[in-house]
Amino acid sequence: MNRSKRELILAALDGSISPEEFDVLQSALLEDEETRLEYLGLLDLHEDLTELSGDVVTADAGASEAGPISFGLTAFVAAVVAASVLFGLVGFWGGHREFDRFRIVDAAPAGADGLDAEPAVAGHASIRRMVDVVWSPGQSVLSPGDLVSAGPLKFERGLVELDFFCGATLLVEGPAALDVGSDWVVECLSGKVEAFVPPAARGFTINAAGSSVVDLGTAFSLEVAGDKARVDVIDGEVELRDRRGSLRLTTGEGDWLNGKAADSGFERRVLPSLDEVAASAAAAEDAAYADWRRWSSDLTADERLVAFYSGDDERDTDRAFVNMAGASPRASDGAIIGLADFPDGRFGAVSKAVALNRPGSRVRVHVDGEFRAYTFACWVRIDSLPNRYNALFMGDGYDNGEPHWQIHEDGRLMLSVMVDTSDRPTRIDAGGNTVVTDNGRHKVYFSPPVWDMSMSGRWLHIAATYDPATREVVHYLDGEAVSRHAIEDKFYIESLQIGPAEIGSWGQPFRDSPWFAVRTLHGAVDDLMVFDAAVDADEMRRLYKAGRPPGHLGQ
To answer: Model pTM?
Structure first.
């Protein structure tokens, strides 16, 4: 090989690598750790230089823009896949250590068949519903849909409905303390539990007070207070194993564990049915939604609020993402292009969001005028991040002063503003062609990772501010700042604008070819706001708290 490994990596990144050279590089990536580390370092540098997928442009007259079918870009994508599969998870997990509630784990080692490891998440159950829950001090705060890993689960009041992966469902009333052992075993340290166990989960076991209650189908209750506990069979049969031996109990029968009867202070309670829990959860969502509509109605009078795109407007929204900002005529309604879904919003069936999961789907908007600063904020439910960049709000042409707000494939929030489109540095590749290494001067401001696969389907409030006056960019998650970034002189721009833009996708409508980068956000978006100001930390916290659904993570 005449070219060094570093030169091969650079050639892969700019698409000029030959088939023979690609084979050499691929082998090096698979076999040599030093090469992999150098590749990842150069890839990070490449991402910092440009966030545009179409950043490899040759200046010779015979160059084609049909990049997706050229070998150079195919080799580049293959190299990215090879390195990402092998090592992307390591960097991903390292970044997530800043958020201890995240439960993604390292992938299992590669099998004997030589296939690469696949990502995995830790958990034995998930939360289906919650009603009026107050978590105990020191307990990780969870929301409906979250995974429950091995270890303690404690709350002071309320009801939690847990679905174990074996098929068993537990309804737990607080104050309660559980210790989750596996998909099949949980220990109840205190509280009242009702278990509903289908045939596929036969054998599900709850340990308490030095005893074990093994379900033989289909439902039973267990109440624990100190070292005293009682089991009652609602329907079916259980096996009680304690110091007396093994005892079978059937419908209507019950017993004190270890024969240790409690004193008169032990009150047997009847928990609500699962239907009643569902009705209570829906009523809480309805009440919270009504409060949000009243609060947000007052917000629309804020002159700084340029756009407030919501799926909850009473008008027909099959073709429109309605702008509900009342004080500013600067932003149009969003025109929904292509197929879109309107799933339940964060408040359940009473509210609606917009989901754009197909490459051609998008919301087209137009925002007039100049901005003093930017604030972008929205509620988003991320199902997956399949693309390298996943669009939230994107200026069409990415001209000077226009923003790009996105989520990186590794869960990092991204905000960038174009500073100078005329600044297009180039280099000469091995074939003597002029290669553009950046599409204008801009900087991408990355947050730490705020999402991983274990959070799929969870509603999050995310936001970003860009403030030329303070020369600062801030990323927010659920009302709290997760990163702050100084705006350097060379990336400073005071004149900000948006014009035509897109929500949830980016089709680059002024491109010169039919090819466009796929950045469709897989999930749902609601209550997307654009302010002509940098909303401060206190205001951001109030915005989040006013719009959060019952039982949300930050509550």
So the answer is: 0.66
Looking only at Cα atoms, what is the longest distance across the chain?
A: 92
Burial 348-382 (b: 16+ CB within 10 A, else e): bebbbbbbbbeeebbbbbbbeeebebbbbbbbbbb
Name residue 523's beta-bridge partners.
382
Q: Is 282 helix (H, G, I), strand (E, B) or coil?
A: helix
532, 404 Cβ separation under 8 angstroms? no
Beta-strand runs (E) in 88-208 = 104-105, 120-121, 125-135, 147-148, 151-164, 169-180, 185-196, 205-208
Query: What does the alpha-carbon distance between residue 107 and residue 85 come to, in Å, rounded to a whole number?
Result: 10
The H-or-E segment that residue 96 falls in is: helix 89-96
Tokens of 150: 């091995």
Phi, psi of 292 (to 5 degrees): -65, -40
- Give whichever of 9-13, 139-143, 444-448 has the largest mean pLDDT: 444-448
**193: amino acid identity, one letter:** V
- Closest C-alpha to 5, from 37, 35, 27: 35
Residues 55-85: tens digit of each pLDDT: 333 333 333 333 333 334 444 444 444 444 4
Confidence of residue 539 (pLDDT cuts 50, 70, 90): very high
What is the tens place of the pLDDT at every residue in 204-229?
999 998 899 999 988 999 999 877 88
Q: What is the dihedral of CA 315, 319, 325, 329, to 10 degrees?
A: -110
For 274-280, the CB contacts below 8 A with 24+ separation are 274/161, 274/169, 274/171, 274/196, 277/129, 277/131, 277/159, 277/161, 277/171, 278/129, 280/131, 280/132, 280/159
Structure tokens at 11: 């050639």
Return the closest-CA partner of residue 196 out of 98, 99, 128. Answer: 128
Nearest-10 crossing angle of helices 19-31, 33-49? 120
Residues 77, 550: Cα–Cα separation, whole Å: 42
pLDDT tier, 278 (very low <50, low <70, confident <90, very high otherwise): confident
CA distances from 110 to 39, 122, 202 (A): 21, 18, 33
- In order of 16, 58, 65, 426, 513, the CA distances from 62 in angstroms are 14, 9, 10, 18, 15
Please compute, for residue 175, the number of CA atoms within 13 A of its CA located in the half-sphere on the CB side. Answer: 7
